[in-house]
Please model this.
Amino acid sequence: MKLKVIDLDLADYLQAWNLQKDVLAKVINNDLDSALILCRHHPVITLGRNTSGSSLKFTEEEILAKGLKLYNIERGGDATYHGPGQLTVYPVINLRYFKKDIHWFLRKLESLAISCLSDFNLRCARIQGSTGVWVNQEKIASIGIAIRHWVTYHGLSINIKRDDLANFNLIRPCGMDIKVTSLEGALGKDVNTAEVQLSLLDRFNEFFASRRAL
Amino acid sequence: MIKVVLPELGEGITKATVSYWFFKAGERVKEKDDLVELTTDKATFNLPSPCSGILSEVICSEGDSVNIGQVLAVINEE
Model:
């Protein structure tokens, strides 16, 4: 796979969202093979297509007044928070080269996060029926995707920093009353996000190394 | 007359929810245009139009839960 890696570092959500859509169009038109966009976001709450009325604990005005941005977006799933203490990855890949199967790709993203976090000696797991990655009953990685012409966008975010979890209290993450955790919180020590990013990139190349011809 | 059917979306996926129609009945569509957005648990999936023509009938409304293989719409092919 000729993967174009785009590292935005700290990015405004709108910038990354627009970039995803540009890259998506190129992959759909075969002008680009595939891409992986990596970034950390300024504080933002995004509402996926399955967002229910009770997912926001505050009004839109109150959330904006707290300095966060808020977007209704086209991914699946419910409400989530993104912030600078997370690593967010948006794989834009053509599933025709792998498997035309939404669940296969969701499970692949979970495995990607579990493997990446295991590189830091953190044991995580899936919970059947609750997409994402969990440390005991606390969520550490969230997933929500969109697919056009079997090309994926949106993706996966992993909570890294323990001091960037408070804004999850503004929402019911994924529409559920759950606790969230971070890599630092679970390990009880500081972690360099850049190291997690390197691990994730290695694991991504490993996980999506073999593909079939069309 | 081409029937637009909800395709296989993956192992274990038996249904999806119609979340958005990009066209209304009576409108002209082109092959590969995004026709309808479908939602499963954590994913949205845009189904492209299989042909160019007039979207003559929208059978499933936004919010409807539909089964794999179910007819979503009919297009009069040009």
